[in-house]
Amino acid sequence: MSGGFLERMAESSRRRADKARLRLGEDELRRRVDGLPAPPAMSLSPEGFDLIAEIKPRSPSEGRLSSADFSPCELARHCAAAGAAALSVLTEPSRFDGSLELLAKVAEAAVDTPVMRKDFLVDPYQVLEARLHGAAGVLLIVGMSDDRNTEAMLKTALACGMFALLEAFESTELERAHEMAVRLDAPRDKVLLGLNCRDLRTLAVDRGRFGQVDLPNAGGYRMIAESGIENAGQAGELAALGWDGLLIGTALMRAADPRELAAGMLAEGRRRRQA
Fold first, then answer.
1. The dihedral sign for the CA sequence 212, 8, 138, 141
2. Are 185 and 13 in contact (CB under 8 A)?
3. In which band, very low, low, confident or very high, does the pLDDT at 1 lie, cut at 50, 70 and 90?
4. Helix (H, G, I), strand (E, B) or coil at 145
5. pTM over 0.90
6. Distance CA 246, CA 53 (A)
7. 207 inside domain
C-alpha cells in the first residue's frame, strides 16, 4: 500500500457520494432524516475507560476477517453485552467489504447501543446517509480533507444528534482535531479524539505512538487509541498511560469468544485507570 492510500479512498468515496445523490437528492435525504427519532446516546463510563467494538468483514492489511458463517448481528449483541459503549461498522465496499446495508442490520440488532459509521467520509451528505441507515455516530478522518470540510461534516453530525470520532494518524492531526472541537464548542459527550497508530504507507502498527501523546491537553475530550490492540494486557497499558478508551476491530473479529475478549479489555482498562 502506497502513501496515496487516503487519496485513493477519498476519490472513491466522492464517487460513491455522487452516485448516491443521483438516487436520492440531498433535500429528500434531509427530509427523511428529520423524520427519524433521536439516535441512542453514547454512554461513557464514569470509570474513565470505554470500548468501541468494530465490525469489519475485511482488512487491507489482514485480508478477509469474517468466516462463511459470520453473523455481524450476533457479534454486535455479544459486544454490547460485554459493555461496549458503541459499535463501529465499516461501510467502505472496495477494501473492507462493508456496506450501508450492514450498518442498518447492526443498528437494528444493537437496539440501545449506538452504532458508528466508519468509512472514508468526505461529504456532509454521507453523514446524513449514515443517520438514515441507523448510525448514531460517524468517524471523520482529519487528514481526508481540509478543516473546513471536516467541520461541515462534524456540524452535520452534531445537528443530527450524533457523536463523532475525529481520527488522526499523527500528533499534528490530533492537535487539529482538538482545535476543531474547541472551535465549534462541541459537547464533550459528542466528540471523541482518536489516534490510529497504523502507518498507512506500510500498514504496520506502532503502538509506541500512543506513549508520545500529551493526553492532559485534551481539554476534557475523551481520547481513543485505535489499531494494534490485541489483548487485555495491552488495553491495561494504554489505560495506565491515560487513554480513555480503545477502538478494537481485528482482534474481536478473530477472537474465539469476542464477548470475553471485550469484557476482559474493559475490566483491565478500568482497573488500571483506578490504580
1. positive
2. no
3. very low
4. coil
5. yes
6. 8
7. yes
What's the domain range around 85?
Answer: 5-37+47-274
Contact predicate 181/191, CB 8 Å = yes
Rg (CA), the chain: 17
> Per the structure block, which three cell numbers stand in for 10?
477519498
CATH number, domain of 255, equals 3.20.20.70
Predicted confidence (pLDDT) per residue in 211-224, tens digit: 888 776 778 899 99
Q: In one letter, which amino acid is 48?
A: G
pLDDT digits (tens, 9 = 90+) for 21-76: 999 999 999 999 999 999 999 999 988 899 999 998 887 777 776 666 779 999 99
Q: With CA atoms as reference, report the closest residue to 83 among 219, 242, 264.
A: 264
Half-sphere exposure at residue 200, Cβ-oriented, CA atoms within 13 angstroms: 15
Pairing of strands 245-248, 50-55: parallel
Q: What Å distances lie between residue 42 and 83, 163, 208, 264, CA to CA? A: 12, 8, 29, 21
Residues 166, 94: Cα–Cα separation, whole Å: 22
**What distance in Å separates the CA atoms of residue 48 and residue 243, rounded to the nearest whole number?**
9
